[in-house]
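Build the 3D complex.
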Amino acid sequence: MKRRVPIFILFFGAEIFLILAAFYLIIYFKNLPEIHTYVALFLGIYLFVRALVFIIIHSKTFTKINYILSIINDFKKGKFIAHHNNNHSNNSLSLIIKELSVMGRNLDSVLNSQKSEISKLRELYQNIVLSISSFFIVLNEKGDIIFANESFCKKFQFDLEDIIGKKIDSIFIFVTPTIKESIKSVLTKKEPIIIEKTHLLSSTSIAIVADIKISSMIVEGETQVILIIDDITAICKKDFQMNLISQVSETIQRDDEIESVLHAILIGVTSGSGLGFNRAMLFLIDNKEKKLVGKMAVGPDTMEEAIQIWSSVSACGIDIYSQLKSYQEKNHEKSNFINLVLNTSFSLKDTTNIFVQACHNQEYIHVYDAYNDPRISEEIRDFMGVKEFVVIPLISMNKSIGVIVADNKFNQAPIGQDSIDLLSIFAFQAALLIESYNNLHIIKKEMEKIQEKQEALIESEKLAAVGRIAAHIAHEIRNPLVTMGGYARRIIQLAKDTKEIIKNQDHIIKSASVVLKESERLEKTLSNVMDFSRTSSFIMEFNNINEIVLDTFELLKNLFQERRINCKLNLSEELPLVKSDFNQMKQVMLNLIQNAIDATPPQGEICISTKSNGQNVYISVKDTGIGIPPEDLNKIFEPFYSTKVTGVGLGLSIIKKIINDHNGDIAVTSSKEEGTEFVVKLPLPK
Amino acid sequence: MSKILIVEDEQNQRELYSMVLQEEGYEVDQASNGKEAVEKVKANKYDLVVLDIRMPEMDGIEALGKILSRDKKIPIIIYTAYSNYKSNFMTWTADAYITKSSNLNELKEKIAELLAARSK
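Done.
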């Protein structure tokens, strides 16, 4: 650059010379010799060239200034990198340009790095937003939709432009009060709210179950509400399927009414998140009538009712039992829909009927357009009143037992293949449940019959116990009768002798009083026996257990004599009264003592004793028999256990039952050497 | 006069029989059970014994054996309310087996018959 200065001075000097020369020429112009003319011409040419050079030199400077201006303009526009035409000229403008372009490059690199940073971030956020499967919409303070994400629009089949500016009421068929209130609350309190398991039904008939998170944000001073909607329909469905069947079968175990069972099944079909059909009907085959008979229906009557149900019931909660309860409470006013189904039946011979067909073919039928489907009879069309529905046969043991018919009458949602598959599985389970219910029912009935028979058997066994001592009782009666007859004859004889009648008076009176006494004894014996025939009613009174023991002993006295068994009575004199049924307790004593007699060999001894400890009264019957083998001790109270040739083995089970009815207890101890002892414990009133 | 022992635990019956038989002209002794009867037979001589079977202490069957072991020839009438003892072979050793009745004629006739046979 230093080299340039002398050139510049040289030019400068030359120029001064030229200017001076030009002055010379102008002064001497008028009489110029020819040489001067040439010089002037030369000078003119030089000046021209010089002007040209000047112009050329300065035009370069202009270009550079323009170039700087364009760079600054570019800078203004945000363009920092100039085209690389720097011609390395050694002037200050070039320097500036150079500096500027360096600066530009620096700025550009800074900007670029920021740009990529930003685009990276943007990409990240975009990915995040995209990867959220949640649907979300943003509302302004007035509740107008100002944004909806792509998946929201896709799920509910809306165009974004169509829903912007609308209220959520107008894009969903119903918005529960909970959601509305929550939005309000979020706007005022600014705290996020989560609403779980809520039904959503769009105006485009897309129904889902969702967790909704409502939160607020402030954008440019304005509060906005974001609704993040998580579709949990699939999860709910799975949950639902998992416990639906077990719930239904639990219901079956709990209820003995087939109605409840059927209702439980249909609730499963319609229960919000489960299969989620709007209505379900159940028809079962009546084999006697050869008909497919409407048995049960679940579903709302009207759209209003449907909305009410959807907004009140928690979608995932499928507590069938509580739903059943509310059903049973409501049941007295059956809806029109239920009545319609209950009053409908189809002949199994009518093979044009699509329900019957489904039964016969054991295959489901999906009707897409009932109004134009030739398979659908007018009758069914009227009955269903809906375009699309599905008929699923209930098959158990390769045999159709009925059909489930389901539709989406109210939200008009199309029936998807997955719903049908699920319903088929469910129908299969339901069929098994109905079958097992029916079987259970039959078994229950049979059990009842057996129970009745058993009770009758017990009753007869009670009498049989009396019957076994009937012979002895007969003699108990015969003895007094013989005595009475004998004395009566004597009275007649004595009275015949009219002369001696005064003399025989004492004799006659004595004989008559014997007759009287014997008849009293007879009456007592009879009522003693009669006590056993009055067993059905249960009368709890305060009784003296000793009296019961003695009465029974009286009855069996003859038997003791016949078997030559000694009976020892060891009755506590201060025995408190026990609240008990006199006749039943007598039955207990009769059975116990009879057993003891049967177990005791001749010359043996039976000891009957009573005692009390203030809390209980104990009656002990101890024999000197052969004892009960230890392995049989826990079996003896079971019905039909018997070691005797006679009898059916109900004696001890009868005793056990009566004692239980008295809140008492019976214990047994037995050994081969010492015989058997039964101890009855009866509680005293506190 | 023939002497008869009545063995019967029912007091009223016992007294009735003895009254009736006394009126028939017999001398009557009473015992209320088998044990008493055996003692009385040991101590006295009877022409006939009317024996009930079902009695406390010692029943008629046992008493029957004891009486016969002492005096094989003494006529014994079993007089009981139970007909089922007829199957007990011990009762076969008695001279008669009569089921109790309010009508004592059968008993009286049997006593007369047995005593007549004995006196022959």
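The interface with chain A takes residues 10, 12-13, 16, 19-20, 54-56, 59, 81-82, 84, 100-104 of chain B (CB under 8 Å).
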